[in-house]
Design brief:
28% strand, 5 helices, 4-stranded mixed β-sheet, globular, 6-stranded mixed β-sheet, 262 residues, alpha+beta
């Protein structure tokens, strides 16, 4: 699953209960959090996930401790972070990509789980293009000449038709590089918009934000047959309030990935 938590803004006590209950019921194996808080006095990821998860947190963070985090049911090996400060305009926001080697059991085996959180501003698609390439190069470096399963999740702050998302889904190259990942939502719901950031959410502060579906789960494609981990299901999380409480200003996304068929 991936979820932008919106830090501890709003009525955090009530939002916490909704998130904690919903995540507990989902019981995900792999979690990517964005805008998650870690300080000397509070660890939001550990609080929401509870025991039973290995955790990795981003080094890039805001002054209030806001960063990204990865949670895994399985042991986490090497963790590396890409520097997404690709132009002077990215200053002032903790944009980052964290990739973790996950020691998943057979029949899946070791995989790379990547939490990608590029710049958010509407006018920074150029930076998101450069940041996508930086993240893809980090994944290549971590792959070390092998061909591991790769799952990339996060708040990518761009619509499916944008250049940065088209790059991830194999529809265009950027900076002399090309990759191909399968968009889990598009695979299961090809004719549904699947918006995750919308004025229908009462916590959204930007009422005319032009990008609707900006949160993704992507699975890297192999040489034949599409994604190396078959996508069985994909749905939004926390798209409806619970007892009048909205979990975050974003909706989350969860994907059910099957065992490799090749």
């Amino acid at each position: 699953m991936t979820m932008n938590l919106w830090g501890t803004r709003g009525d955090w006590a009530q939002r916490r209960e909704v998130l904690k209950k919903g995540i507990g019921e989902l019981d995900p194996d792999l979690v990517a959090f964005q805008e998650v808080i870690e300080t000397s006095s509070y660890d939001q990821a550990a609080d929401l996930l509870g025991p039973g998860y290995h955790l990795a947190r981003g080094a890039a963070r805001e002054t209030d401790g806001q960063t990204i985090a990865i949670g895994s049911r399985w042991p986490i090996g090497e963790v590396r972070e890409a520097d997404l400060n690709v132009t002077p305009r990215t200053a002032g926001f903790a944009c980052t990509t964290m990739a973790a080697r996950i020691e998943a059991p057979d029949p899946i085996g070791p995989l790379l789980f990547v939490n990608h959180f590029p710049s958010w501003r509407l006018d920074m698609e150029y930076e998101r293009e450069l940041q996508a390439v930086a993240a893809a190069r980090l994944i290549d470096d971590l792959s070390d000449g092998q061909d591991p399963h790769v799952v990339l999740a996060g708040d990518l702050d761009a619509a499916p038709e944008s250049a940065s998302i088209r790059f991830w889904t194999g529809r265009q190259s950027l900076d002399g590089m090309s990759v191909c990942y399968r968009d889990a939502w598009e695979r299961i719901h090809p004719d549904e918009p699947g918006v995750t950031y919308t004025p229908d959410n009462p916590l959204m502060v930007d009422g005319d934000w032009p990008f609707g579906r900006i949160d993704y789960v992507l699975v890297r494609c192999g040489l034949h047959g599409g994604p190396t981990l078959p996508i069985r299901d994909c749905r939004r999380l926390f798209a409806e309030p619970v007892d009048g409480v909205q979990a975050s200003d974003h909706y989350g996304v969860t994907a059910d990935l099957g065992d490799p068929e090749r």
